[in-house]
Amino acid sequence: MLKTLDRYIIRQFLGTFFFILVLIMAIAVVFDISEKTEDFAKTSASVLEIVVDYYVNFILYYSNLFSGLLIFIAVLLFTSRMAGRSEVIASLSSGVSFPRFMRPFFIAATILTAISLYVNVFLLPHANRTRLAFEKAHIWSTYKLEENHVLREIAPGEIVYFETFDMPKLTGYRFSLERWENGALRAKLLSDRAVYDSTTNRWTVHDYMIREIPADRDSLAQGAELDTVKGTIVAQERIRKGAVLDTTIALKPSDLGQRLAIAAALDRTEIADFIRAEKARGGSTVAYYEVEKEQRTAYPFATYVFTLIGVSIASRKVRGGTGVHLVLGVVLCLLYVFAMKMTTVAATNSNFDPTLAVWLPNVLFGIVGLWIYAKAPK
Asked: Are residues 186 and 116 in the same domain?
């Protein structure tokens, strides 16, 4: 049964958070409009499409992205005001223990964590899909693949290679397609360039050579010849050349690379399937998608860490009041963001475990929060 103090703290906590959220999102929308005014002027999208397809989902995405840090600021502001008005001292002096005093804060944190989890896992991927589709159609420039020597396994035993790939032209240069069976090369297609036709989903290869190697060939020499040891005829290796060849390959340019922001538009089933497919193809962005998958649960649970630290810091009445608490809060926010950035960069570039990379800042700052909690006035 919630008492008057509990209801007061929960109401003030949630009210302060949503007030800050609305304020920050209003500022973010104003800045984004000023930045994209020229893009919107050139686009054929209607005002309704800009508002509904882009800005509604823009607000949802960034509200969820910054919710943890805004919760921290809300806790600091509200608890600091309580401390400044001696409400914390009065509560503790009346016989309320500090753990009991923190209970309504964690009830409110649980409500916000549940909302964030639902948004992250179920609602946000579909919202991001609409937002990113709008950006792709009206704002983004053509994507460029920076990676060279692109190697992908498009099916078991089938390996595609491009020395370079021009994404705007949908053209790959120094192209090869190999087919392997039981560890042995059976066929190889070499081409000067390969062009993808998005209307037919077919590839056109230019100046090509196809080399076919029979499974029972035991000699490197071409043409049929007598194997004097076994007394059998060695199968013939075939080589074909031509200027142009249309072919169907289980590969699209988007399989070679796409904007990493697309990861946010995949739901939990799609991102799991994508990670498995990327691992099978030998893609270089697997770690980024694994980080994206883990962040969808790690970020919401950071709410508990921020609440613990915020209440423990701001419940102490100090000279300078809210200003001192806000400075400490901003410093801790920056340290958390820095730690998260360091670990995720290590995961995407240095083979650091993505799960550990995403959860490590929560663990470290959770330990810091427990230490601050132990030092808080009881």
From this structure: no
